[in-house]
Amino acid sequence: MAARLALVIGGSLGGLFAARLLRSVGWDAVVFERNPEDLTGRGAGLSTHPQLIDILRRLGIDFDESMGVRLDTFIFLDQTGKTYLKAKAARTMSSWGRLYRALRDPLPAESYRLGMSLRHVEQGSAGVTAVLTDGSRVGGDLLVGADGVRSTVREQFLPDVTLNYAGYVAWRAMLEESEVPPDIRAEIFECYAFCLPEGELFLAYPVPGRNNETQVGRRAYNIVWYRPTDPDTLVDLCPSSNRSSISSRRRLSLDAWRCWGTPLSWRGRMWAPV
Ligand SMILES: Cc1cc2nc3c(=O)[nH]c(=O)nc-3n(C[C@H](O)[C@H](O)[C@H](O)COP(=O)(O)OP(=O)(O)OC[C@H]3O[C@@H](n4cnc5c(N)ncnc54)[C@H](O)[C@@H]3O)c2cc1C
What we know:
The protein is an alpha/beta fold. The chain has helices spanning about 15-25, 50-60, 95-105, 150-155, 180-190, 230-235; strands at about 5-10, 30-35, 45, 70-75, 85-95, 110-115, 120-125, 130, 135-140, 140-145, 170-175, 190-195, 200-205, 220-230, 270-274.
């Protein structure tokens, strides 16, 4: 009997996990990703958790040293940059691209189709059909909507669910290890660093380098800074956001707007809002 076929809409991490897990239990699964190009360069650093490692092992992906940079210290900084707490705790810091490659590479080329965008879903008694924006139709036994925060699948089946702006933006930067200033490198590079100005969160940690290198000297440094941002500023930062579609559930704290005296004074080369 032919394997049942799952159509997975969205070729990012959620879609890849769904496709790989379905394949591991005997299904066939084809992923449709609307981007025409590989997604490797999309993300930045990613802190791992036991659940992630367990699920990767279920897929036969060994979480070995190539998967990330192992740290054993968390460090908390005050707003002047002084350390107020250091704690021993192990964590492996990986990267979005490393995880993406590990999930995507074993999939046969014909099972990961780039440049294929879902227009809508048709549900029949014998199965489901994905109707794509190029007019093609693909039939299957199951359709998985892994098409992200602005999901076409969710919009069709749950039209009343709307986006609710959380009220903050994450600014992130990736530096090559060689670009990190020596004093910062000596003090905090090998730690999972946190700073918590009121209403904000700043994180920094080393991750695999541009080509997933984990050797000392060739790694990268990942920085994320979560900051309250009013809806008008969000629209300025991300013009594709529609002001009227952004509703804020909570009033932003004015305190959180005060300027943060930067304890870490370096230039991020690739600051970009996420
Ligand atoms: C720019 C960016 C960078 C991020 N970087 C990180 C990071 O470094 N570390 C981290 O932990 N988290 C990061 N995140 C958070 C991120 O949301 C998760 O890590 C993870 O990617 C979520 O996976 P997902 O598959 O649920 O959704 P998404 O990653 O949002 O993927 C949805 C996919 O569906 C595709 N799609 C959408 N509509 C259609 C359609 N109609 N037809 C076909 N395909 C469609 C999209 O192109 C997209 O590839 C980032 C998020 C963004 C937006």
